[in-house]
Here is the input.
Amino acid sequence: MRHFLLQISLLLVVSLVLTSCSLAPPAPVDEPAPASADTDAEKIIYLGAAVSETGRFSREGKDTRQGYGLWLDWVNNEYGGIKVGDERYKVELIMYDDEGDPDTAARLVEKLINEDRVDFLLGPYSSFLTQSASAIAEKYGKIMIEGNGAAQPLFERGFQNLFAVLTPALNYTRSALQLLAEKGAETVVIAYEDTAFPTSVADGAQSWAAEYGLEVLGVETYPVNVADVSGIMSKFKELEPDIFVGGGHFNDAVLFIRAAKELDFNPKAMVITVGPSNPKLIEEVGADSEYVIGPTQWEASMSYADDYFGTAAEYAARYEKLWGEPPTYQAAESTATALALHIAIEQAASLDTDAVRTALRNLDVVTFYGPINFDEKGRNAGKPMGAIQIQNGEILVVAPTNAAVADLNYPAPPWKDR
Amino acid sequence: MATERNQKENEARVKRKPLISIPAPVDSLLAGWAGLALWLLLLLLLALYPYTGVSSVALFVGSQIFVLVTLASNWNLIGGMTGYVDFGHAVFFGIGAYIMGILVTGSPLLISPEWGFWQALPASGVAAALFALLIGLPTLRLKGPYFSIAMLGTLVAMREVARVLRPITGGGVGLNLPPLLNRLGDYYLMLAVMGLVVSIIWWIQRSEFGQSLIAIREDEIGAEMRGINTTLHKIVAFMIAAFFTGTVGGFWAWQNTYIDPDVVFVEARTVEMVMMSMLGGLGTVWGPPLGAVVIYFLQDLLWGSLFGVHLVALGVLLVVIVLFMPEGILGTLGDRSSTSLGRLLSRVGRSK
Here is the structure.
């Protein structure tokens, strides 16, 4: 009898849920007021973005949201709205959670364009989601400007409406390799994760190595979510290279450093993507992270500045005041994304997509984040990648020279002498 | 003591009896021509839906739901009707997606000229069906959880194969398809595929073929002894399911414009299919479509109202449904063709 009642009540619950499904009002849509609303109604520019709040990119997605949020807060409350000709426009940013799922991201971008009628789109976090989202923006001829998708294939599709403020993945290792070549390094080995972004990094590393006269002794790939890289590292140990380049994500950096120490593999420099510029790496591997070099899109200690946020350090202080934590480079590039759009709209003096697109193409400015100058594929060709080195537990910029705050320590001593 | 036992037996009987028995005529009507007529009417209404001036988001949501209904129905054919619980069915989705990707991009295999979408779409299905033949011959000899695990292994293995065959599949970098999106076209295409698949399943259930499948599910040795060629029946059912799953995979690759091993060969997609079939009613014609629609809107509703804990809420709700409505919505409503996952998985070595 008990089960019978349970079943009945469950059925009731389910049917209630179903009924509420059909009765539930559609998800709130911020219907923009008609832009031409005459009289003294406030002028508003609508921006939209689908950024992960849950799912596999929730952490980086949060940085992205906060980066956009900082610009939004500043432009509305401090700057007084975007100047379009003689008028000031407030900005409204509609953000949804894409759950890290390409289907959901696609649906939300479609919704932003067709139901929320946004004027411009900001990008999601990760190359992976930018792939799906930008295809939809392109289809509708909407500009999508992004700062969190650097993989090369994104820009090989002939899109006219995708712009990225970050340095493309091909150039990630450029300044580090150049500096190391100047310091006398001659040989290099490369290991990278077999996914879009690290592959672009590694392709770039090989061509920059050739450019700076470094001999590539070995190239290895490993699958995503690898648990052990000691096989690759022991192979590399026998080659005795001067430079080790590792392309992957945060955990891979930890694995590379630990495996190198365990196997007593002593390259004179380790260049590893993503991990080293994150203070968490020092927490995780401690003193073994000394001498490790990492490419960085941006650091608060860099010497860039603009008329909007001031210097990189002032930006960082502002960010920390608003969000209670220091900005990661993902946050800074998100702010720079919105800022680049902002500047382009002001230069175009129009909200027309074609005019703003032309303005973006012709954009050539220096911001707190670095120079922004888009090439014909929509990549930021103007910005060099920085390089940091961990010295005495601090993350210090060592390249490019005009942003450097410390000298590169090279060569790194062998593990046994540390 | 005796009365207590009596009481328990009574309870057991009550439990076994369908909760709400649909009067026999309605039940058989739904399974019969009236069911098909209602289905065709629904399809007609859905075909007219775009004329009401809906946004392309609505069309996109529509085609996503049609995809889910098609996948759930396909899974039900092998999992629910034949009783082979396939935990790796997404492998056919992935193969379809990759065949589409390889044929329309052409470059890695140096296929020139590249194929068009309409040529590549059936090829996706055919490739998946052939793969089902290949993999089904050994795995369909396994029973209960052994088959499920073998198929799960196949899925994981194919994901690695796609990663390793870099010159053909682009490896972990994946493939970029030409971004030519057409939401209205997608809507009608998936509506047609869904209509076809569910109609075929309706037909199968009424046919001798379908009755043989159910006989296999209920008692495979018995079915064999009655002269049913069980191997042939199982393989054909498996291939039909794989064909349409592969077609949907090919479509999905086109619509998403980007594939890599981790986005098409995902366990979650299989779990989704199982969940939808199970919620609606395993082995029934109308259960899996119903389950797919319910889960889609449930997800949306929870996402809107319980944001943050929406995934937990969905999980708990599904566990509760599985525990207390093991035969799904239609099974609970008295559809006699339904069965429960637990029963199917416990058929190890025994004839039942």
Summary: DSSP finds 18 helices and two strands in chain B. Chain B touches chain A through 46 residues (CB under 8 Å).
